[in-house]
Every structure is written in C-alpha cells, then in structure tokens.
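COMPLEX REQUEST
Ligand: zinc ion
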Amino acid sequence: MRVLGIESSCDETSAAIVDGDGASATLRSLAILSQDVHAIFGGVVPEIASRAHLTAIGPVVSHALREAQLELSDIDAIAVTNAPGLVGALLVGVSYAKGLAATLGVPLVGVHHMEGHLFATSLDDAHAEPPFTALLVSGGHTLLLDAAAWGEYRLLGATRDDAAGEAFDKVAKLLGLPYPGGRHIERLAIEGDPKRHRFSRPMLHGGQRLGDDDFFDVSFSGLKTAVLLAVRAAEAAGTLEAERAHIARGFQDALIDTLAAKTVRAAQAFGRNKIVLGGGVACNRALVAEMQRQLTRARGKTATVFAPSLRLATDNAAMIARAGLFRLERGERATAGLNAFASQPLPGLVTAATNP
Ligand code: KG4
Ligand code: ZN
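STATUS: Structure written out below.
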C-alpha cells in the first residue's frame, strides 16, 4: 500500500510517501517546509502558521510526489495528522487531505501526532519495533510509554509542567540564544564545564519506589528557575558571557540525567531491552549517549537505544504516513467528518490494571 502522509500540526508543512506493508515499510520521499518566520517572534504564532500551511501544502505534496517519481493516481491511501496541535494549523492539513481523498476515491485515516513520533525511528531501523520503552520528547510533550505492541501502549509518566523541548527553548531565551533553542544549547553545552553549575535533578531521588506517583513523572519548571537564578547572579557579577556555556551544560546535564534515569527505570520495570526515542529533543546526541550509558549499566550489553535520524526526529509527514499505514492495515478509516483537535489521548492506551 502506498500511503501519502500529511503533517501540519505546528510550524512544519510536510508530505511524505511510505510504501509497503507494516513489516517492511519503506520511505519513498519526504518534503518538509519549516516556517522560519516564527523565529523573530520567539515562538510559533498560530495565525501565521495556518496561513503559511495554506500557501505551502499544495507545493509540498507535489514535491513529495515528484521525489518519489509517482503521480497522484499511484496513491492508495492518505494519512493526516488530526491531533494534537494548533487547531487552525491542523485544519489546513485535514481539509486538504479530505478533499484529496474524496477526489482520488482513496481511504483516509486520521493520525495522532505523538503516535507518529513513536513510529518515526522504525523507518530508520526496522529493529525499532515493540516491545520497547519509549520516551517522546518534543516542544509540546514529554511522554514515557511502554509499548507492548504497535497500538498497545501504557502511559507511565509525563511532565507535570514544561515539556522537555519547551524547557530547552525557555533556557535558550534566558541565555540569549535564538528560537527554537534546543540545538543551540546542545552546541554551547559542549564547551561548558559540567562541574561549574550542578543543578539538582528534578523529581529524581533514590527514595522513589515503583508505584509512587513521582516514580516516572518529570518536571522542569524548578530547573528553569534554578537556571534563571544562575543567569541573574552571573549578570550581577558581570560574568554572564563567560558563564553561558557552563550554565547551558549544567542545565542540559540535569535534564538529560533525569530523562535517562526515568526511562531506564521504565525499561527495568517492564523488562525491556530496547528504548526508542522520538520528538525534536531526540536530536540531542548527549541525551542519546547518556541514555545508552545508563541502559547498558542497568540491562547489560544487549540493550539498545534507538534514536531517530535528525529529519525524522522533528516534525515530519513520514512518521504520519507510517503510523497511518499501521492504522489502515487494521481497517481503520476516517469519514468525511474527520475533525482536528488541540488535544486528544494517544490511541491504544491500555489501563494500568496490569502494572508490572
Ligand atoms: O518534535 P518537534 O519538532 O516539534 C514538536 O512537536 O513540538 O520538537 C521541537 C523541539 C523544540 O523545543 C526544540 O528546541 C527541540 O525540539 N530540539 C532540541 C534539539 N533539536 C530540537 N532539543 C535539544 N537538543 C537538540 N539538539
Ligand atoms: Zn512533534
């Protein structure tokens, strides 16, 4: 089955074509247009995002078809992100996909954006398939999941305040770095001294036990405040320029250490030897390295961390086409009434009745 995926939930307009069946899905093409205009506002402006999607969506779909050397008539089905995200932005993709599916007479399926992130890495490496522990870390979400099978997920933990990417972006702003700030912090942190600012690890201490409500959850607002205080102190001392890299390093180490420890706890609790990462923060090489170090220490040499390639980590339609292929193979179909939602629970969540 050849699936055209469409993604427009935030500030990337993207289209992709995935070919094959669930077991051997291959990526034929991927087009992504990032809306750089938001950088000057220091964050995504929803109205501007919707209008930019409207301008871009036609050419982006054409580009994906051209790259795959296919015609519209070669498409067997369409998958589109319909939640969660900016509603006005989502509606552009959903409306376009509905119109195209009706015109071509092919089935349509709505895809949950975070399930897309869960599937992304499997397009890079077919071994990134369940059972695994998953950490999804993007600008809007931080989710820790156990995936027993595709479509069968248990939500173990989440952030209680800022998402991991949001924390990177806010700290970047405090340090005078451009938006989105994650990759700028990563670059600056390389030059930083890890011992100079040792921020405490949020919601992480040895006394926590499985079953405690803070065992898997994370929180970053306290860490953000600690960074703010360090920035103010350096400003007052006139040393901010010299301290920026050290503060970036201290922040990144604390955040990464917490995420790795909580994810490895989940892998231990469910006896999983695979961790799959997804979302923009999974671009961070220090996060992947620390995750692998902690997982190997806890589970031994056979345990592997799978991280998506850079273009599949951040928002893209390839992951939407891949997750859509899974849903279509299960017989799921959207009606002409498919709508867009700002938030929606991940599909396939099982209840906590069978905790480890
Ligand atoms: O998944 P994504 O592209 O969009 C959302 O669905 O939100 O994630 C974007 C987030 C931003 O907060 C950005 O700062 C962060 O991913 N990010 C990074 C890195 N690259 C992107 N965070 C840390 N290190 C990076 N190298
Ligand atoms: Zn995303």
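REMARKS: The beta strands are 2-7, 12-19, 26-34, 77-83, 108-112, 132-137, 142-149, 152-158, 274-278, 304-306. The mean pLDDT is 95.
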